[in-house]
Amino acid sequence: MSTDMSAIQQSKALLRKQIKENIGKIPMADRERQSDFVYRQLINLPAFKNSQRISVYLSTADEISTDAFVRKSFELNKQIFVPRYRGNVMQMVKLESLQDWETLPLTKWLIRQPSVHDVRDDAMETGGLDLVVAPGVGFTKDGWRMGHGKGYYDSFLTKLIASQPKRPNIVAVCFKEQLVENLPRHDHDVHIDQVIYSEH
User: Fold this and answer.
1) Which pLDDT tens digit goes with each residue over 147-165?
2) What's the whole-model pTM score?
3) Would you kindly state where each structural domain of the chain is located, as residue ranges?
4) Catalytic residue at 30?
5) CA 127 to CA 147: how far, in whole Å?
6) Whether residue 154 lies in the annotated active site
7) Of 39, 106, 122, 170, which one has the fewest beta carbons inside 10 Å?
């Protein structure tokens, strides 16, 4: 690893630690309020209204909740794809129903995820995606994102964009406490179309 790459990794690691500490201090009522604000913005986006095939992360307590968004998407008969991690690879696999989502098993990280033994439609093999709702640790208002450091989303998004004729809309959602002025960046970091957050 070059000195520059190493310096970027170290900067990101420090920033992740700092942002995670900030998230830890957000009262539960405020997390719920910010999540509700973000949800309302999200479902009013033309990119959501015009999308049929959507991928969304399944949230933990330290992330903007996507529960209401999943329910609304099913209500509108949209096709929902969620992350499934296998080793170093992340797939987006299809949820069949609200009940399917509600009964997903928990991983050791306490993230709901379809079992690796389930045979499910893979978004990239069955028609791609119209909209991706992405998580992350840190964000800039102009669309740069820093994940947890494994590169799952950047790798997935790069392949997805290359695999379909029309670029999907990529939207990130976050608490205002996750916003920073600047992020150290790698060449492989994928730019996000829009970052949605509550300013209050």
Assistant:
1) 988 889 999 999 999 999 9
2) 0.93
3) 3-196
4) no
5) 26
6) yes
7) 106
